[in-house]
Amino acid sequence: MEYHHVVTADLEQHDDRPADVRSISAAAGLDYEGSPLGLRVYEVAPGQQPPLKYHYHDEQTEVFYVLEGTLYVETPEETFILGADEAFVAEPESPHRAYNPDDADSSVRVLAIGAPSVDDVHAYEEDD
């Protein structure tokens, strides 16, 4: 059996995204590729977005759970507005873009879960 106690405040910036991102799954020793899940905490300032682009996945289901603030998620059909303790689930092949609008009053903290953890992301263009 293995267990991991991870203090997210002690984690370093996970990658070069403009938003603050801390990888809980990497801290627990779960490799990015082939792991059962990817788990990250994002601090998203006004005008930023957790994922780098409007996108979809072939296999991965992606969940954004709002810890604090308000998160906007754009889809081809509508834009969802999520408050604290609300979640948005995007199933495979479902285009989406999570963001904190330019005119937001504050940052938003989001727990993002991707399962399985695979690099199957594709940019989505409105005319696709």
UniProtKB/TrEMBL annotation:
It comes from the Archaea. Transmembrane segments: none annotated. It holds the Pfam family Cupin_2. SUPFAM superfamilies: RmlC-like cupins. InterPro entries: Cupin_2 (IPR013096), RmlC-like_jellyroll (IPR014710), RmlC_Cupin_sf (IPR011051). Residues 41-107 form the Cupin type-2 domain. This is Cupin domain-containing protein. It comes from Natronomonas aquatica.
